[in-house]
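Collaboration report, partner site 2.

Our partner group contributed sequences for two proteins of shared interest, and the home lab folded both. The records are reproduced in the order in which they were received, starting with the first partner submission.
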Amino acid sequence: ASGVRFSYIVKDRLVADSSVPYDDVLRSVYHGDRPEILEARNKGFGTDERSSETLGRNFLYAATAADNIPGLEPGFIRLAQPSFIISKKISRLYVGLGLIFIAAFLGSGILCTFIVRAIMKGAWEMVATSKAIGDGHYHRRLHPTKWRELQPLVAAVNRMAENIETQLDKLEEQNGRWSALFNGMREGVMVVGRDGRIRSCNKSARRMFPGLENPVGFSPMEATMIPELQEQVDALCASEAGEFGPDGDRDKDREHEAPLEHRVFCVSLPDSRHIEITSVPFRHGNGRELVLVF
C-alpha cells in the first residue's frame, strides 16, 4: 500500500524481492554493480535513484549491509520506493509548509495590527491630552499605560500639568490679593504702557474721571480730558524711549544707568481744582510702564 519495495541481495544476486515473483527472482540479473550496493559495500549504507531494469519504473534505492542476521547469509537489505510517490510526499510537504507560512504571516500581521492599534490608541490619547493641557485645561491627566516604553513620557506630561496647575493657582491667588488691594485703595491708580495708553485703572480712578466707562486702551487725554496730564505722560514716555534703539532693543550704552525715579506733579481739573499726581516707573518685560497715583 505504501509502494515500498523490499529486496535482499546475497553474493551480488537477488534472492528475495517483495515486488517480483520467486521464479523471476531466480532469473534476475546481476546486482553487484548497482550503485547503492557498491556504496553500501564501501560505506555500510548507499543510495541511488534510477529506472529499475526489473520493473521498468523510476525508484529511489537505499541499501545497507546485513552481516549479522541469524538464519540469513550475509548480504544487503535494499529498500526502494517509486520516485513519483516521494515526489508527491515532497509536494505535500511543500504545500503544508506554504500553508503554515501563510498562516503564520497572517497571524503575525493580525497580532501586529492589534499591538500597533493599542500603542497608537495610547499615543493619540497622549496627543489629545497634551493639546488640551496646552489649550489651558491643566486639570487633564494621562491615564497610566501598560506599555513600559511610554510610562516615562506619561509621568512627565502629568508632572508638567500638575506643576502648571500649581503655579496658576498661586498666580490666581496673588492676582486676587493684588486686585483686592488695587480696587480697595481710596487713591486713584492708573497704569500707562510704553505706547502711552492706559493698561489698567482701579475703581477710584474711574470715579474721578467718569468720562469713559472703561478707559483701558485709551490715552490719558481721552480718559481724563486733562491736557497737562497727557503732556507729563508724553514726557515720561519720551525719557523711557531714550533707553531703546530704533529697533526696540535696549541700548547697551544706557543699560546700566540708574533707573528712572518717581516724579510728582500737579494738574488742574476743569472745575478749577488741582490734584497731585505721583508717577512711578517700573520695569515690565523689555520696557517700562508708568503707575500714576492721583
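Second partner submission, folded after the first:
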Amino acid sequence: NYTATYEEAVGVAFDAGLDLCFGCDPHLDHGPSGQASTYLKNALAEGLVKPAQLTDAVSRIMLTRFRLGEFDEPPSRAAWSDFLGAAAARRLVADGFERPTAAQSALGAALADGAAPRDVLLAAPTGSGKTLAYLLPTLAGADGPGGVLVVAPGRELAVQIDRVARRHFPDVSSTAVVGGANRKRQAEALRKAKPALVVGTPGRLAELAFEGSRPLKLGKLRWCVVDECDHALRPPFGEDVEALLGALPRSCGVVFASATGAALLGDEGEAARRAQAALCVDATAAGRAGVASGA
C-alpha cells in the first residue's frame, strides 16, 4: 500500500541516478502522466533502462501509479513462455523484462512462432512497449536478407526502432535508412550487408525501392510494419507508403501500428484493402488487450 507524491517519485529517481531518463526540471509539477513519467515508461518498455536500475522505492511508486489508473495499463500477468521459445524468453528476462506488456502479450500470442504472416491492426499506447510488440513476432526466424521492413514517419523514430532491434536481436542484421543521410552509402549498405531488417522513413525507402538500381528488394519480404500509421498514411508520407504497400508480395503480412487506435486507413488504396480483413489487436485501456478477426 505504498503511496508517494509525484515530487517524491522524481526525487527518488534523481537520487537513483535516473535524471537523464526524466529529462525535465524536477521542481516543475508535470503530473504523473506528464513528460517525465512518459519518458521513463518509454525507456523501460523499450529496454533503454533496465528495471534493475530503479530503486525499490521507484518501483513501488510506479506500481502505485499503475493501480491508480494514472498509467496506460497495469503490470502484465502474462509470461514470455506463453508465446516465445525458451531461449528467447530467457534472453528477455536477462535483459530485465520479467513479463511482457499487454501489447506484447496480445500480439505475440496472435502471431506466435510458426504462424503465417497476416495483416494486423495494432493499437498500443505510448509506453506500452509497442516496438518490441511487433519486432518479437516479425523477427522470429528472420535469418535471411530482406525479411522485415519497418516504415517509420520520422528520422528519430526510425533510428530508435533500429536501436531497439540491435539491442534485443543481436543476431539479426539491421539497417536504418532515413532522409537527410547519404543515399549512396545507404544503397551500398543494403547491397553488401543484405540485412534481415530494414527500418526507414517513407521517402527514402521509396527512393531505394523504386529508383536507380533499386537496392531495396521488396519481393521476398515476409513482414512489413507501418509504425504510427495514423501519421504515416497522411501527407506528406501517404503516397510513398501506399506505393511501398502496393509493391509487397501477396504473402507478406502488414502490421499497422498506432498509439491511439485511430488508424485512419481511409476507404481506398492498398492500406484500406488490407485493413478490411486484418486481425485487430487492441491493447489500449478501452480495448483491454482484445483480439478480433477482420471481416
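Feedback sent to the partner group on the second submission included the following. The CA atoms of residues 96 and 104 lie 15 Å apart. The first strand starts at residue 120 and ends at 123.
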